[in-house]
Design a protein that fits this description.
By secondary structure, the chain is an all-alpha fold. It has 2 domains: 87 residues, Ankyrin repeat-containing domain (Serine Threonine Protein Phosphatase 5, Tetratricopeptide repeat), CATH 1.25.40.20; 91 residues, Alpha Horseshoe (Serine Threonine Protein Phosphatase 5, Tetratricopeptide repeat), CATH 1.25.40.20. Helix content is 53%, strand content 0%. The protein contains 12 helices and no strands. Helix 9 packs antiparallel against helix 10 and helix 9 packs parallel to helix 11. It comes from Emiliania huxleyi (Coccolithophore). This is Ankyrin repeat protein.
Length: 178
């Protein structure tokens, strides 16, 4: 796992060739593929995928390689994972999807990739927060526009009744409120 985390491709290849289990997780459940995806180590991601690593294996929090790549803004890693059949809407234990995280971080290219791959634009976390809500909260105009263009439910409220528009107004994000 540490070889992929650090991007040491030759060591990762050596371990794979020696028969190391490509899906061996650490104490928190992080696999070499998840570590490489989180750090944007594209060559290690490619190596793990071709070695047959489980692209949807999650850690103890439900954190998958795709979620990791999307959270950190690693577009090429996310593309490879989706081509390798990563589940686009596989959520963490709290219900957050890769699209939610991309919108929270303002990673427009990744949000577009996920939308094009069929991600649900309205899938909410356990507290009712949707990708549109978080984009409005964080002031990510382009992500909000992308979601609205994909027919995201503009009035879908959190459990406490707050809507994306309410949050944009509360945070002072004029362009989103328009």
């Amino acid at each position: 796992c540490i070889a992929c985390w650090q991007g040491h491709l030759d060591i990762a290849r050596l371990l794979r060739d020696a028969g190391a289990a490509v899906d061996q997780a650490d104490a928190e459940g992080v696999t070499p593929l998840s570590a490489a995806s989180q750090e944007g180590k594209i060559d290690c991601v490619r190596l793990m995928i071709t070695a047959g690593a489980a692209v949807n294996q999650a850690d103890s929090d439900g954190f998958t390689p795709l979620y990791a790549a999307c959270q950190e803004g690693h577009l090429e890693c996310a593309q490879l994972l989706l081509k390798a059949s990563a589940v686009v809407d596989k959520a963490k234990n709290n219900g957050a999807t890769p699209l939610y995280k991309a919108c929270e971080k303002g990673h427009l290219d990744i949000a577009r990739l996920l939308r094009d791959a069929g991600a649900s634009v309205d899938q909410a976390k356990e507290d009712g927060i949707t990708p549109l809500f978080i984009a409005c909260q964080e002031g990510h105009v382009e992500c909000a526009g992308l979601l609205l263009g994909a027919s995201a439910a503009v009035n879908q409220a959190m459990q406490d009744g707050r809507t994306p528009l309410f949050m944009a107004c509360q945070k002072g994000h004029l362009e989103i409120a328009r």
